[in-house]
Amino acid sequence: KKRPLMEIDSEVVREALALKREQFVDFALLLGTDFTPRLKNVGPVRALKFIRAHGSIEEIIKIE
Description:
The chain is mainly α. It is built from 4 helices and no strands. It comes from Serendipita vermifera MAFF 305830.
C-alpha cells in the first residue's frame, strides 16, 4: 500500500526539538540514513536523549 508523500521542513523540526544545527545532524545520523542502517536499540526517543545529554556523537562515543 502506497502512502502519500509528505514534505517536512527540517528547520521547523529542529526548532521544535530545540537543537542546534550540528546536534540535529547528529540526531538524524543516529537514526540512520539511506546509506547507513539505524543503530540497534536506538530510536528517536533514545537518540534525542543521547544528544541532549552529551551534545554530539563524538561526546557519546567518549562516554558510552
